[in-house]
Structures are given as structure tokens and as C-alpha cells.
Amino acid sequence: MKDNLKWLIIAVVIAIAVPLVNSVFLSGSASAFISLILFMAVDPVFSVISGISASKDVKKLWWRPAAFAVLFFAGAWLFFGHDEKALLFYAGIYLLMGVAAMISFSASMKKKK
Questions:
Q1: Of all helices (H) and strands (E), which one includes residue 68?
Q2: 25-81 pLDDT, tens per residue?
Q3: How far apart are the C-alpha atoms of 79 and 101, rounded to whole Å?
Q4: Contact 1, 10 (CB under 8 A)
Q5: CA distance 74 to 52
Q6: What mean pLDDT do residues 82-95 have?
Q7: 91 exposure class (CB count in 10 Å sphere: 0-12, 13-18, 19+)
Q8: Containing domain of residue 30, as a range?
Q9: Is the CB of residue 102 less than 8 Å from the CB of residue 55?
């Protein structure tokens, strides 16, 4: 339970708090740069980390990659634009990355046993 709460807090910070701060306090090139860093580096890495952390117990933690994709979409939709179709694409890619990492690491842990 404690790990789930810690993971959820980190996911909310990455997916909602950082875009909120970006959209409220930054503008122009700085906002675009932070958005690019989020979409191309931070969010994909956290998606993979979510999958890896879920691979420890897939039956209990399968929701982590999906939850991050949903949180990302909610945060991006609220702060970057309601009519942006690319956000759904990014959320889908992040979900696929998390699930692929979860399956891959789960399979490799089973081979080690």
C-alpha cells in the first residue's frame, strides 16, 4: 500500500503538477522546451519505470502503466489543449511502452527462477 501511494504521488507530480506549473508560470519558448522534455524524455522513461515496477507482481500492479497513461492524458488535456488529438496518441504510446516493459521484465524474472 505504501509503495502504491508513493508511486501514485510521483505519477501525479509528473503527469499533472509539472504540466500545471509549465502552463501557469512559463510561456513561449520556455514552455515549449519543458513540454518537449516532458513528452520526449520524462514521460516515456516514467512509463517504462511504471512497467518495470509493475512486473514485480503483475496480478496486483498491472494498473500502474494504465494509470500513468490516463494521468498523462488528463494533465495534458487540461493544460495543453482540449482539441489536441496528438495527446491521445502519446497516451497510447506511453501505455504500450509501460505494458511492454511490464511483460518483458516479468518474463525475464520468470526465466531467472
A1: helix 63-80
A2: 988 899 889 989 998 999 999 999 999 999 999 999 999 999 999 999 999 888 877
A3: 28
A4: no
A5: 23
A6: 88
A7: buried
A8: 2-112
A9: yes
- Kindly give, in sequence order, each residue whose CB lies less than 8 Å from that of residue 53, ignoring residues fewer than 6 positions away: 7, 61, 64
How much is the CA Rg of the chain, to the nearest whole Å? 15
- Tell me which DSSP letter residue 15 carries: I
Measured between alpha carbons, how far is 4 from 21 in angstroms, rounded to an integer? 24
In this structure, the dihedral spanned by the alpha carbons of residues 90, 91, 92 and 97, taken in order and rounded to 10 degrees, is 90
pTM, two decimals, is: 0.88
b or e along 55-81 (b: 16 or more beta carbons within 10 Å of the residue's beta carbon)? beeeeebbebbbbbbbbbbbbbbebbe
Q: Is the pLDDT of residue 95 over 90?
A: yes
Q: Dihedral sign for Cα 94, 98, 104, 108, please.
A: positive
Predicted local distance difference test score (pLDDT) of residue 92: 95
